[in-house]
């Protein structure tokens, strides 16, 4: 392109003594360049004015084909401001992100030299452009006949440009007799592409219609380019450089069109059902269909254009003249004064809900009206009325006000039927001056609430169209801060930056996203609210249940609900289907086949995300039959088959594999009839088994083909899809960095307008670079500073941004910490450990997709101090990076990381021990009464009448079994035979009394018993040291045989015993705790055997315990768990029927809630001795116990302040054990026993 500096070198130079510098230096100056014809401009270069203090530091560009209806250059959805010069000699070049196609270019200075004036030398770079243009008047349609009557097209490429001032109209349309079609049309100034490649399959119907909408405000009388690229079902739909990729619905790949495809409207041959759609009014150029230049064929008269009244190859200029208002703009126009008639009309478009459209002063008062609803206000009479609704939608709306004498009418969008009419209390007398867009008094204070932001056109005052070109030339009226002959409205919601279905709303300056119901959060709905897999929920300490998962995190796949089974070491993910077990097969079609559709309430892509990341998947299938064959012979045609992933048909059954047309019994050679390979092929029994080839799963359809014979009957079961293992989540994928110069490098990733990064780290170092990614202009950098600060820096539009989060505790404590960073078009967020965060808004410009040309470095590659320590679970935009795999063979970096228990041991509950693993940790529950991955699953059983569990401690193994293992409260058991301390813990629920709950005996007559008396109250009985009578502790006077769960903890250490009892509050179902302490002075010996107290048998053992016992544990021994877990070797025996039960689960929630919900009366139930009397009694009792200690010394000492004689009470408690006569016999002298 020619240069427009005073000289004409290839680039601006110091030669010459010129440049452009306007006489006035203000914001209304501009330089217009006429390129002679339409050109494609791709770059601009600027300098300041030669040898001066004049330059332009910031500027904008406008362009037009006709010197009218100017359009600003946009980038990233904003009116773009270019950075110019900082002196008069430097050269600044900008490559345009999108080429400008126009004849006229306007250079608009925005900021300039502080020491001089506006000045510039500039050059534009580009190339020539030419294209055939066709004008459409709403009647003419181009009908392009296809090469044959019926075309089966697998690939399409369609290109065209259009320009219009109307918001509706068909741009192209083609269809076939089989229902296929393709259509491109404007609807409310948005472009809609509709495609249907056909529908149906053999055993069902799949709709093929697909519709995608793009763009907004396309009735702006500017050129817009459209490219449609289709290959089979994959489509790229590009409008003005913004591309949407989608896949058509249905199953077919070909577009079957008949005869023709039309441009500019519907052809005459289209059926009347397609009516009601308007033809296109405007201009098109460069129409190309599959390589054929349609506009050139029209010019050469090779295409039917008979429907055109007047075919022209030029684009007529629009007569509209728009005015663009910002928040400080106004336009003043003259009108008639002292008239009794007021008539004003205009068209406007805006996004703001409020704004002053018009203000005029009357001879007696004034009035104005505002947008959103048109609010008409007459003042000084405080009178107003409304018309219209939803007028801030960015579309053009017209408004017409007529006021005559004392009557006013307001019409919106020409709808006469909804015109608002009202009487006004005065006689109208116009003032003669009209303000549009704002009215600012001479006080220099601007009422921003009342200003209008948007565009106006077709302004009429006193029924005359205002001559805005005369206004521009200064011949009439005046204006301030408006842009004439342009409408720079920008739709900030197109393209929609609210991700994952977030709903976008906007004002003139910004947009916001409503993420409700999407499963995502953040300013642009980018961040998933859910974990990527069941595996991650497990590592968070969650238990089995139903969860939402989001396998690709911030990716395009929507979250969905699955069932997670975490009871074993492997985590199972389950997807249920709609088919009930043993579903009867009926309703055969004409071919005698019955089709059963199996749905999973998730999409195919969501199912694939589970199966592809799993190590193993299975699905149970069963076919119960009578006179209904299943597969036939291996070489024959299968009677029944199933359809799996990708609609592939399979004729093997559960227990078999791909390519083997057999059932499980055929593989194992145990079919009922050895002549067949399935039981049902012999019309007998059932065939069932697991389908385990995960690339074929899940089952989506079963076609049963032998149900038409007399007496035929079949029932089908398709179990849920179950998968285990998570190859892609890699929650523990880690690497250890042993040198500050070491790093891992990965291929560069393509950034997006939203980028998220997350990882875990632990270190003892105070500084280090976690990761960085450098580009020619773009970069990302995350770093640890000073042992307590994490920083996240990046650039946006050439501007560097940095966020820092300070931790109140040191981060170099060798514990795991999590870093989450996100950058999107609205804000940047840095979060540490899920609680400390910094959020900063990002600049409005520069949000192109990040382009990185260097590799991603985990660690530092640029000479800075790298990270020392461990890093794991690194994810960028939902994709996990394989740190372990990359660390293999990398010097200074080792795969994996140790020391997980230092951070995660708290997840091992109830005394479970944390065990280090190479890729994580596990919880050892063997010395607890609990099961599960985190030792949180109760082990309990339901006892019927006569049921008991007996655990024997052998002499040679007794000390080993009760060795110094830490129990739930940390109480240890010494290795000697005599016990000086023990802890007994269990939970129970029952509705019957009396009963013995737990009984522990020794070689002598020493024992410990926990019983429920006849009235349901709890009693603890100790018989120690050969005393004549056992000590009894009546714990409470409440009935505990009430069917509610209760938890008991009895802990003794030398002379002190502590008893904790959880009791359900009768009146509100919550728990209160009670504590009792007793002064003991005797040593308990529980390792020898003896007889069971006959008083217990007589009073409390009939009819025996009936109810539930759970979490039973004495120090490190869990007898009930040993009885219920067949894999545990233990000296355990069970009498009667013991059924596993999870009845102990309720007690956890009850205990946790006690302090908040129990009444003060229940919370304060402790054993206290009031005043001096209590102290006297306590002293006397302790003296008595001291005497008894010397009188009854056996193997230890025992002090208590518990009153004697409790055994003579007349009631006992609720139920467990010993309705067996063997209990009254003397126990083998070589054993210690424990009965429950």
Q: Your description of this structure?
A:
- It is a single chain.
- This protein is mainly beta and 1236 residues long.
- The chain contains 14 helices and 81 strands.
- The strands form 15 sheets. Strands 22, 23, 24, 25, 26, 27, 28, 29, 30, 31, 32, 33 and 34 form a 13-stranded antiparallel β-sheet that branches. Strands 50, 52, 57, 58, 59, 61, 62 and 63 form an 8-stranded antiparallel β-sheet that branches.
- The model is unreliable at 1-16, 201-205, 442-449, 956-977, 1064-1090 and 1149-1233 (pLDDT under 50).
Which terms summarize this structure?
13-stranded antiparallel beta sheet; 1236 residues; 14 helices; single chain; 81 strands; mainly beta; eight-stranded antiparallel beta sheet
User: What oligomeric state is this?
Assistant: single chain
- Binned, the helix content reads under 10%
- N-C termini distance: 98 Å
**Could you tell me the strand content as a percent range?**
35-45%
Count of DSSP strands: 81
Low-confidence stretches: 1-16, 201-205, 442-449, 956-977, 1064-1090, 1149-1233
Structural class: mainly beta
Question: pLDDT average, as an integer?
Answer: 79
The biggest beta sheet is recorded as: 13 strands, antiparallel
Helical element count? 14
Q: Shape from CA axes?
A: globular
How much is the radius of gyration in Å? 42 Å
Summarize the structure.
It contains 14 helices and 81 strands. The chain has 1236 residues and is mainly beta.
Any chance you could write out the topology, listing elements then pairs?
Layout: E1 31-47, E2 56-64, E3 71-72, E4 74-75, E5 78-79, E6 82-83, E7 92-112, E8 121-128, E9 133-137, E10 142-153, E11 155-163, E12 169-175, E13 181-187, E14 190-196, E15 209-214, E16 224-231, E17 234-239, E18 242-247, E19 255-263, E20 281-289, E21 292-293, H1 294-299, E22 323-337, E23 341-349, E24 356-362, E25 365-370, E26 374-379, E27 383-387, E28 397-404, E29 407-412, E30 420-423, E31 430-436, E32 454-461, E33 464-465, H2 468-472, E34 478-484, E35 503-506, E36 511-514, E37 520-521, E38 527-528, H3 534-539, E39 545-549, E40 560-565, E41 572-575, E42 583-584, E43 594-597, H4 604-613, E44 616-626, E45 641-643, E46 649-650, H5 664-668, E47 686-691, E48 701-704, E49 713-724, E50 734-737, E51 743-746, E52 755-762, E53 768-774, E54 779-785, E55 789-796, E56 799-806, E57 817-823, E58 827-832, E59 836-841, E60 856-859, E61 869-876, E62 879-880, H6 883-887, E63 893-895, H7 901-904, E64 913-917, E65 920-924, E66 930-931, E67 937-938, E68 940-943, E69 948-953, H8 955-961, E70 981-990, E71 995-1001, E72 1007-1012, ...
Antiparallel strand pairs: 1-7, 1-8, 2-3, 2-6, 2-7, 4-5, 9-20, 10-19, 11-16, 11-20, 12-13, 12-19, 13-14, 14-15, 16-17, 17-18, 20-21, 22-31, 22-32, 22-34, 23-28, 23-32, 24-25, 24-31, 25-26, 26-27, 28-29, 29-30, 32-33, 35-36, 37-38, 39-40, 40-41, 41-49, 42-49, 43-48, 44-47, 44-49, 45-46, 45-48, ...
